[in-house]
Amino acid sequence: MFSPRLLPSLLILALGCSVPLTHGQAPKKSDPKVTSAKKKKAEPAFSWVAPLENAEWAAKILPPTMKHATFTSPSMGVEVGYYIYLPPGYEKGAARYPVVYHLHGGRPGAENKAARLARYVDEAIAKGTIEPTIYVFPNGGPVSWYDMPEMKQGMGESVFVKELVPHIDATYRTWGTREGRALEGYSQGGRGTTRIMFKHPELFLSVAPGGSGYGPEKHIQDNEGYESETLRFLPLGYNAWDLAKAYQARPQAERPALNILIWDGTKCFNYDFNLQYSAYLKELGISHQFLSIPEVPHTVTGSYDVKGDAIMQHHQKTFAAHRPKA
């Protein structure tokens, strides 16, 4: 049985920080109190454009075909940043490529947070472990990968789903199909991946949430949308547990199949809840694979050091089965 008393430490670990925002009405005195008594560090400033600040450092850790770009958000009227990895040979040819979107962890959003993962992609392509593939590293918004309609420029999920994905397909030589579009993320990005894949299964076929904070997502489900005393997500049901159930309840004709890989390190503080979430999906009848990464704590680069090829190859199997005919 899940206990809300575990949440003060669980949320601090799973999120790294909590966001002093309220979505909807302020909580009443009877609402669950899950904030830490310790004084919290000041939140970093959020910007929809957040490249790596040190160009020399960026040149050392990013592949040469990785670039930072922006587009103008139609809904917000501001520039939104992202990193994009284009495989070697992209600039010289006319071929189209599948694309993987990696959703970063932590709050607030910043496209620089997971950009270094591109080196694993570049090395895997060079070794022939995976086929040439585009990888995109977006900005998750002020409350990473959540829509916060009462916040100015706070629609992190919608900007990604409704604006960035169409922008990428219109700007770069992608396949432009669900079969050629994959979604993955880590920690906060794993939570976002899970919610988005069950809300928008028409967009992605291959999906791989990793290190996800399913404990906080369960708390949101059990406490009328409240993640903490000061943060609420609406409408009710806006969490990984309810969205999985809603997905499975769709008529079969309206429920596109998903190729799901859940992955986490066995030393990660979220590992037990990832096992519980996997068991929950089995109860619902949602097919998926589970990848345990031995002895790895809560770190996306550590996870990729050990099992990055397996995570990338999960998407490649889907791409290979649906490659467009020449």
TrEMBL record:
InterPro entries: AB_hydrolase_fold, Esterase-like, Mycobacterial_A85_antigen. PROSITE patterns: PROKAR_LIPOPROTEIN. It comes from Prosthecobacter debontii. GO terms for biological process: xylan catabolic process. It comes from the Bacteria. The keyword Cell inner membrane does not apply. It holds the Pfam family Esterase. The keyword Repressor does not apply. Keywords: Carbohydrate metabolism, Glycosidase, Hydrolase, Polysaccharide degradation, Xylan degradation. This is Endo-1,4-beta-xylanase. GO terms for molecular function: acyltransferase activity, transferring groups other than amino-acyl groups; hydrolase activity, acting on glycosyl bonds.
